[in-house]
Amino acid sequence: MSDISKKIEEMESALSTADHCLSCTSCMSSCPVMEAEKSYRGPKLVGPAHSRMHFSQDDFEDSLDFCSNCKSCDRACPSGVAVSTLNMLQRAKYYETHEHSQRDDMLAHGERMAKLVRALPFGATFANLGMSIGKSLGVFSAMGIAGERSMPAYASASFMQLFKGIKQPKSDKKVVFFPGCFINDNEPQVGVAFVKVMNANGYEVLVDEKFNCCGSPLVVTGYLDEAHEHADNNVSRILEWKKKGIPVVACCTSCSLMLKQEYHELFNEEKMHEAGENVYDAFEFLEILADKGQLNTNFKQVGEKLMYHVPCHLKSQGFGVPAAKILAQVPGVTVEQADAGCCGMSGNYGFKGDKYEISMKIGEKLFNRIKESASDEVICDCGTCRLQIQHGTQAKTCHPVEILAKAYGK
Ligand code: SF4
Ligand code: SF4
Question: In this predicted model, what pLDDT tens digit does every residue of 237-264 receive, in sequence order?
Fold first, then answer.
């Protein structure tokens, strides 16, 4: 028996949920891919039904490739079936006997590429130029990447580089920031805003250079063994911080979901559950402060009409939408929730050439909602959702923590 098959057999918790399926089809009516792409056979069949057979047989359900891991099906299931995780486990099994494409290798290993870029003088400038020339010459399209999109540009300095220059007041109250690849390399201003917000609340922010990418891009492209290595490393770091009584906080909802919940669902190890208890999403943490009466509400006037797209991976964490509640207290800010479903991007899914049309079709309702609104800016806690919103609407976007930093006058 191969390593992945053994691993999957040991994962009783996710696998056994397949037997709880009642065939109610709630997952099917909530699956955005199924609605956009009629040839997708949907979560009920691909997840629970085929899980029972595919982990013991060698054939595969072709339409498994359509699943974007948005997790809408998991939220809809009244029976607690880990549908999306079953899909990702089956995808990993598929790649045990099938080659990954060069495109999937590239989309899964953004952290590896960013390290190469950061190691070179003016690496970000040259990489951005190379990506722009590559796009105009059709190199990315030839690899299977959606030619309609631009790859996200590297920021001239990473968050970790910028962090070294931030002067913070010392404090006994500390959090460790988990930036994740997208904030570290593409949108470091989100991480800088987070530091300012925590400082305004009397916290000192630490970073841990030993963290890896959370592994989400690896899981969705079927590199389960590598994702497990990332999980082992990150979990051991989180547990070290837990021993010191210092929580780990992330601003990207796909990273926080992975650290808090998906490691445990995918790999079924007690240490992952234990580590997950020491991880918070940024606004989840801020709401805890608010509930204790410890949130600094000395907000300055910020005149902004905001449309809020709540990411699927935030909804899956089940703590509501604290950013909407907190930002609504800022003078001059109005927050309206888009409530228009999935944006269609789902991490690297919308970058795939063969998934581009599906991705845009899923996002259509959200795009129309944003275009018809008179909002100044769209806020969203997920970096790749923000890319999709910019691409589909040309709207200005930011992370809600950037608005809060403004409210503190930072
Ligand atoms: S994770 Fe999303 S795309 Fe995949 S089956 Fe579930 S609802 Fe559909
Ligand atoms: S929602 Fe849950 S119980 Fe209903 S069909 Fe889907 S997996 Fe089965």
Answer: 999 999 999 999 999 999 999 999 999 9
Q: Do domains 3-97 and 159-289 have the same CATH topology?
A: no
Q: Which ligand is nearest to the CA of 359?
A: 1
Query: Which CATH number, 3.10.20.30, 3.30.420.40, 1.20.1050.140, 3.40.630.30, labels domain 159-289?
Result: 1.20.1050.140
Nearest-CA residue for ligand 2 atom 4 is 24
d(CA 371, CA 393): 7
270-315, pLDDT tens digit by residue? Answer: 999 999 999 999 999 999 999 999 999 999 999 999 999 999 999 9
- Distances, alpha carbon 192 to alpha carbons 120, 126, 368, 379, in Å: 23, 24, 31, 17
Segment among 88-97, 177-186, 251-260 with least mean pLDDT? 88-97
Core vs surface per residue 224-241: b (16+ CB within 10 A) or e: bebbbebbbebbebbeeb
Helix-, strand-, coil-residue percentages of the chain, each rounded to 5: 55, 10, 35
Ligand 1 near 316 CB (within 6 A): no
pLDDT in tens, 307-327: 999 999 999 999 999 999 999
Question: 3-97: which CATH topology?
Answer: Fumarate Reductase Iron-sulfur Protein; Chain B, domain 2 (1.10.1060)
Atom of ligand 1 nearest to the CA of 68: 3
Distance, in Å, from the CA atom of 277 to the CA atom of 361, rounded to the nearest integer, reads 36
